Amino acid sequence: MTAGTTQLHKDRTAMRVTISDVADALNLTKSTVSRAMNGYPDIAEATQLRVKRMAQEMNYQPLSHAQAIKTGRTRSLGLVLQLSDHDAHRPFLAEFLAGLSEGASIEGYTLTVASADSDQHVIESFRALLRDGKADGFILPRAMVDDPRVKLLRDADVPFVLFGRQQNPEGCSWFDIRGEDAMRDAVHHLAALDHQRIGFINGGTRYAYAGLRLQGYLDGMASDGLSVASELIVEDALTMADGACAAKKLLDAKPPPTAIICATDQVALGVYRAATERGQAIGRNLSVVGYDGIQEGAQAQPALTTFSVDNRVAGVRLATLLIRRIRGEPSENLRETAAAVFLDRGSTGPPMGE
Amino acid sequence: MTAGTTQLHKDRTAMRVTISDVADALNLTKSTVSRAMNGYPDIAEATQLRVKRMAQEMNYQPLSHAQAIKTGRTRSLGLVLQLSDHDAHRPFLAEFLAGLSEGASIEGYTLTVASADSDQHVIESFRALLRDGKADGFILPRAMVDDPRVKLLRDADVPFVLFGRQQNPEGCSWFDIRGEDAMRDAVHHLAALDHQRIGFINGGTRYAYAGLRLQGYLDGMASDGLSVASELIVEDALTMADGACAAKKLLDAKPPPTAIICATDQVALGVYRAATERGQAIGRNLSVVGYDGIQEGAQAQPALTTFSVDNRVAGVRLATLLIRRIRGEPSENLRETAAAVFLDRGSTGPPMGE
DNA sequence: TCGCTTGCCGAAACCGGTTTCGGAACGCAA
DNA sequence: TTGCGTTCCGAAACCGGTTTCGGCAAGCGA
């Protein structure tokens, strides 16, 4: 009785099954069980099987912090959020976290989250988490162009994975969405509608994605035989307000663009605002394409045509990549990209001759 | 040389200062150092001081997972996010996390985050985190009316704190914003503008806050001598769409309300949409008051009058309360509430006689 | 002066694992 | 048979802490 097979034991450690329990049950020593569990070659295959089966049966799982004391690794992934970041990524955070913790838990890892409000504090967080063995490696959200986190962790030989790519790939692993492909596709989409003057509002230049997306836009324009006008390109727009401001500038060009591609949905919504203020009808007088797939875009009038990014999947992939990295796979084997999904909604249409 | 005082050690454990190092430096045994650090009474006060000073000087900090193996506690706070939750709380998440990890790190704790997509999985996450010593206690965001998490953790005698209050307070600690006061103040604000027919759209009834806010609304109406019309109250609106739907229902009442108080900003923005579709001008034909202080409210036209909640502070408070709870303080000493801050913006005005 | 408490600390066991080392048992060739 | 190399596992040390236990020395009263 009392056994409470799956209860949240009141009496703490009372009923944890330890490695010794398993060893006793098999008439082996704990050293043998340990080596069997960890796949050491000097254990007979039959024994290894017996041990693993029994462990399964007894529901034994080694205590991560007990192994950590010897191995130094505690089966947890570190994530340091940088808050001074404008709010752009906040809507993604929940899904991203869900993905990370899902990917982590599949392999028996957990996720440790810290936050910091400056580059300096991010570094300090890394150090503290490592020092205390609270993280075996790190996920770096929002890869930056000259990322100080990368420099640090690479030099220190600490495993990490980036959400986003890196110019100098040495020692870097990553998962990323091919934003450049999306921008190129956006151009094609608009060109197919007969747009000629297509503007581009890019995101924060400190982020690695900006360079890629700009290139995608340029490639698209070139491959469609469209000429690129420098006055139709604005860089470094982060917020909705930035987007509105940039849109005004673009709409003041002469001739103005008939379509604007935005590196982020936030910015695209800013374009909505600016255009609406000028009495331009989105999707008719002005076509807009965004990127990210944030919810506000779906609710805008008309719904924003955009490329949606699955941040949950990104989290899952990043977690599994990091775990493989921690387990010793070389970083160059651990690089993945995926495509964004085009959502053709209401904010594009053929250009209006006026 | 090479010492690399504060480097992110490449060579792993190589240079960690252990309890034995401190003991050697003082010509004491590690048992003495341990007891001194933990304030055992059988250590001379002078010795305790010497030890602590030396520890400070040598930058010694016990390895949490080394102590955990004996004590069972690992100095980390658990947070299990429930994703099936509609997206309402997502914008808050970043600030909330920042607050939590800030409050945690002040006391040398870290934050472990997991996620789940059902009540059942939440429970399993709790269990897994406890089992592996990944959490000494839990923060429970979004207190629910009959919260299964509370039942479980209370019975299991695991420390936890709620963001939100609980009807049956036994064993519960919490931090909460007094939404009922806000709703009451909203009524007063509108009554002072001469509104008589004031509608109320409440949030999800499964959440603990809904009951409180409704009561606040009712109290406010009563204390201002206004009569409450049941057709002007809608419960259980979670999303913007719900808000729009509820608003339509209210506006169909005869006579319709001249003002609507919403338990959340999300819902208030839904009211915006519904009202605008009917050609009602917010702030003129219809006054609206929200609650939460989300960013979209500030950008709406006109800016939404609301009560802003500081989720970062909430996180800090919750973390420190939980740590005190873990350290043994009785739960009834660990209950705090704070006021929301009224943001008088553009969405309210005197009722228009028509 | 003696015995007994009390204050303070060291010795050693312990926590739940990992890892090194050595040796028993076995197979096989000489 | 002996000798030798493998295969496989047990014994024991170890990781960095905590905690129990016991003993020494000082302090105290008789």
Chain-wise SSE layout:
The structure is a homodimer of 354-residue chains.
Chain A: H1 19-26, H2 30-37, H3 45-58, H4 64-71, E1 76-82, H5 90-106, E2 110-116, H6 119-131, E3 137-140, H7 148-156, E4 160-163, E5 174-177, H8 179-192, E6 198-201, H9 208-223, E7 233-234, H10 240-252, E8 259-262, H11 265-277, E9 287-289, H12 295-299, E10 306-308, H13 311-326, E11 335-338, E12 341-343
Parallel strand pairs in A: 1-2, 1-3, 3-4, 4-5, 5-11, 6-7, 6-8, 8-9
Antiparallel strand pairs in A: 10-12
Chain A binds a DNA duplex (30 and 30 nucleotides) through helix 2 and helix 4.
Description of the molecule:
The structure is a homodimer of 354-residue chains. In chain A, helix 1 (19-26) packs across helix 2 (30-37), helix 2 packs across helix 3 and helix 8 (179-192) packs parallel to helix 9. Chain A has helices spanning 19-26, 30-37, 45-58, 64-71, 90-106, 119-131, 148-156, 179-192, 208-223, 240-252, 265-277, 295-299, 311-326, and strands spanning 76-82, 110-116, 137-140, 160-163, 174-177, 198-201, 233-234, 259-262, 287-289, 306-308, 335-338, 341-343. Chain A has three domains: 12-62, lambda repressor-like DNA-binding domains (434 Repressor (Amino-terminal Domain)); 76-176 and 311-338, Response regulator (Rossmann fold); 179-309, Response regulator (Rossmann fold). With 354 residues, the first copy, chain A, is an alpha/beta fold. The first copy, chain A, is 44% helix and 14% strand. Chain A starts with 18 loop residues before the first helix and ends in an 11-residue tail after the last strand. In chain A, 48% of the residues are buried. Chain A is built from 13 helices and twelve strands. In chain A, the strands form three sheets. A six-stranded parallel β-sheet of chain A has the order 2-1-3-4-5-11, with helices on both faces. At the A-B interface, helix 4, helix 5, strand 2, helix 6 and helix 7 of A face helix 4, helix 5, strand 2, helix 6 and helix 7 of B. The first copy, chain A, binds a DNA duplex (30 and 30 nucleotides) through residues 13, 16, 18-20, 28-32, 34-35, 38, 40, 42-44, 47, 62-63, 65-72.
